[in-house]
Amino acid sequence: MSIGADLSQFINDQLGKAGINVAPVVSEIIVSVGIFLVSLLVGWIVYSIFERYFSLWAKKTKITLDDAILANIKKPIYLLVIIFGLYFGLEFLSFLKPFSFALSITFTILEVFLVAFIITRVVNVLVAWTAERRKKQKMNEHILFLLRKLINAVIFIFAFLIILYIYKIDLSGVVVGLGIGGIAIAFALQSILSDAFSAFSIYFDRPFEIGDYVVVGEYSGTVQKICMKSTRIALLQGEELIISNSVLTSSSIRNFKKMKKRRITFTFGVIYGTPSEKLRKILDMVRKIIEKDNLSKVDRVHFKEFGNFSLNFEVVYYVNSKDYSKYLDVQQAINLGIKEAFEKEGIEMAFPTQTIFLNRES
Question: How many Å apart are CA 206 and CA 190, to the nearest integer?
Fold first, then answer.
């Protein structure tokens, strides 16, 4: 206030020398307006620095994150400078001295919440940038929306607590009340909060994404939608399974998205009367049948065991596709090829039979 009073006195003296007599209030208003105009000029300079230098520098970088942050904070910072100038300008007016505490509270609230608003804009840009980088993962946008709102709410709550701390308002009662209320709400919404936190866990940990084929317990299907409380899976039978997120995060999930190839094992048997030469032929026949398809690759073919009613062969091969329908097409072609080859060679497939020997006594 001494600087403002000295400046007002200086203006009065200069105007008095010029033969102009004005009231002290007028000189204070002149000083206040001058300070406000200076703040406008400083704000404009800051805005120009952001616009001409920082923005040009950001455009030269490879990422767009810095461009988006600068575009979102330059106007609020300009407004913050103006608010500071308006506050200091009004502080020099002596007739507003009775309202100085109210003005201080008002401008403090404006400044703190404006800073919080700037921080939230930066957070929103960071969340949007993260979502853009994860665009291929097809995560639900409303999870990002709720995450953004939750972070913004926490920032404004901290801003409110900072204001209370600045003016030395006792927070013990508020903290106790919030603690008791929070515990009560947590118990009442325990299952809902558990599912909501599980949704965020699914988003960040990414055990599966929309469009993935998953197996959960006895259910298998394609993930259609991931919500805050539940996940929807379109089952192979055609119906939709709605399962809570907390159950999903606590269950074992088989995700077939990252499967590059599928390992297949199958067996077949031929009758005991098959000659040894033809048993040896079977090994090469099966290999050639499997290798006809470009999607399949033989791992091994073995005459595995002497069964109860058949000579058993075990075959292991890989299908270079995660598509279940393509696997079935390959397996079908192999089965038909084996059947046709056996018919040509006169090899009989085994089926459960029993031979009974009767000992007739004379």
Answer: 23
Closest CA to 156 of 107, 127, 116: 116
Tens digits of per-residue pLDDT, 202-220?
A: 777 778 878 888 888 888 8
Do 15 and 126 share a structural domain? Answer: yes
Model pTM greater than 0.70?
Answer: no
- Percent of the chain residues past pLDDT 90, beyond the cut: 19
Q: Which residues of the chain have pLDDT under 50?
A: 1-4, 15, 18-23, 136-138
Please indicate, yes or no, whether residues 18 and 164 belong to a single structural domain of this protein: yes
Residue 123, exposed/middle/buried by CB under 10 A (0-12, 13-18, 19+)?
middle
Together in a domain, 80 and 210: no
Q: How far apart are CA 218 and CA 285, in angstroms?
A: 37
Instruction: Let me know whether 154 and 9 are in one domain.
Output: yes
Is the same domain home to 235 and 277? no
Q: What pLDDT was estimated at residue 213? A: 84
Number of domains within the chain: 3
For residue 187, the model assigns a pLDDT of 63
Task: List the beta bridge partners of residue 316.
Answer: 265, 300
User: Same structural domain for residues 9 and 148?
Assistant: yes
- What's the mean pLDDT when you consider all of the chain? 77
pLDDT at 15: 47
**Which range marks the domain in which residue 242 is found?**
195-255
Dig out the tokens for 275 from the structure. Answer: 């000659």
Q: Say whether both 141 and 212 belong to one domain.
A: no
Q: Specify whether 277 is located in the same domain as 339.
A: yes
Cα–Cα distances in Å, from 188 out to 185, 193, 246, 307? 5, 9, 16, 62
Scored b (16 or more CB within 10 A) or e, 293-304 reads: bebbeeeebeee
